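User: Structure please.
Assistant: Input sequence and predicted structure:
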Amino acid sequence: MRQPMYKRYIVRQRARFQSVFEGRVNLPWGTVVDARLIKVSDDPEPERWESFLFLGSKLLCAASAQNTKDFFVQDDDGQGETRGRLVTAILARLDPQKAHQEASIARWEKIWADRRCRAYKRPGCPQGRSCEPEEHWIWTDDFYNAPIGDLQHIADLVGAKI
């Protein structure tokens, strides 16, 4: 059996959502949860395993779910609190509600022009093209679990403070 990509996650902002597995979830900032692999297919070929987040024995959500991006960051390196603060600050600074404001457009242009940021750019918004507001949310899953140095670089680019 393989290992989950990350084994430990931390709540980066209060996690309030309806779990399809266990019902209502309400976890405060800083709560530590763990990831476990669960076999999701009984077919021998190909055998499929997926990573899920747990609080004790309570199954919260799939590690690939939107709820994971919205509320959790990996903490395998012990930097989850800092990572969570940086991700939250960056996302707030690049708020799509403010996407048409001049300052927000300038921040996004810095992101698109930066080579280091391109590693976290989801395909679909061609480089050099001015995208519609809904296309501003271009982050791949890797962004939410990025190394602290990369997140700090992005935060500095957009003027996000933690």
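The first helix runs from residue 66 to 71.
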